[in-house]
């Protein structure tokens, strides 16, 4: 038996963290606090933009603001490409994760202390870049804790997902009450404090992670450093030029991110599939990920409307008064994480109990998409109602269905991605998964412009039906997809 601590965990001997390797606790912690800061900020971001200046906001048009939120959310996941590339070519996943956490904290500080649109722009750019680096690499580091045939793998990712949602639950509660009582910038400051706590915790535990988490899978030759520095500089100059010439504007930002993300995803698939560093089995597995990618885009384009359409719905249509107390708008974003916290252990236990008999990843994806479509159809009984006429229990029910859909598709999605990933493209394959989330999130912001509170039936009906149809289509293709997955389920 090897004497390396991380390798003992991969030998299924370490069960100190709720039956999982102890090293999972360190990644669990930093991800929990990162999600606290991320969702705490995102829960108030849209209303910060469209609230009037007199109410502490920026007075941005609602349609433009929802597009910016979608574009920002998409950019977070788009930035996983950069984080994955830095991990695979220069620094390794663990180091990128650590440095990214510092960038995130700087972004929240910028939102808290810099004024007006300058603070918004600088803060969102830093948080997007940092979150992109952290997200793909945290998932990749979790994957290093398990051998490919470790039956605890899906349960481990579900536990990891519990940490994400514990932070997502607490963040909007704290920032929401601070925004309501003392103002937006105090709330953004609380997000910065949360990320600082995550950094402190992770700094003590990062040395215990396995050496494989720190390895650079495909080191960049020193003679190519100059070329890549030039490419980065040219890309930055191009973005600045497009902004200054008006090609990229606030009102078309979501469309730009959708286009860039779609092109990046196609390019990434082509690069990996055509690589001479992978064999036929690995290539087939990457191809099998394409239908899962497409369904995941559809799922997240509905799910991420929690931060666009549902925020507006909660502000204008929802009765938020409970026992004489009016809940802050952002508290609605803490409802789904409560259900994840309550149900993730149940789902983890079910997948562990079923073992090899559990539904395959394509089946889980299909069911997740169909259930998400059902959640949108559940808005219909209260469609076109009067202001503040939708009862809070109705949204609780709808978000419960959101959560069930999420647990079918998101933790298994992270897990199957690491299992399908070729060895030389491990972190970059995880970034492909997050590209599907990026595309869905940007589409969520773009779709919000079509939401009309006076005529909601077409919006919720059409989107719900499309999601259900996508799930049915994937169910019909399960056998050929599994054949392409070459033994991975």
Features:
489 residues, mainly alpha, Growth Hormone, Chain: A, 72% helix, globular, disordered N terminus
Sheet having the most strands = 2 strands, antiparallel
Low-pLDDT runs of 5+ residues are: 1-11
What percent of residues are in strands? under 5%
| CATH structural fold name | Growth Hormone, Chain: A
Reported CATH architecture: Up-down Bundle
Q: Given the C-alpha coordinates, what overall shape results?
A: globular
Number of strands: 2
Overall description:
Strands 1-2 form a two-stranded antiparallel ribbon. It has one domain (18-485): Growth Hormone, Chain: A (Up-down Bundle), CATH 1.20.1250. By secondary structure, the protein is mainly alpha-helical. The chain has helices at 5-10, 24-50, 62-78, 80-91, 93-113, 116-143, 153-181, 184-205, 225-244, 253-274, 280-303, 309-316, 335-354, 361-377, 392-420, 426-447, 457-476, 478-485, and strands spanning 321-322, 325-326. The protein has 18 helices and 2 strands. The protein is 72% helix and 1% strand. Helix 4 packs antiparallel against helix 16, helix 10 packs antiparallel against helix 11 (280-303) and helix 11 runs antiparallel to helix 15. It comes from Microbacterium bovistercoris. Keywords: Cell membrane, Membrane, Transmembrane, Transmembrane helix, Transport.
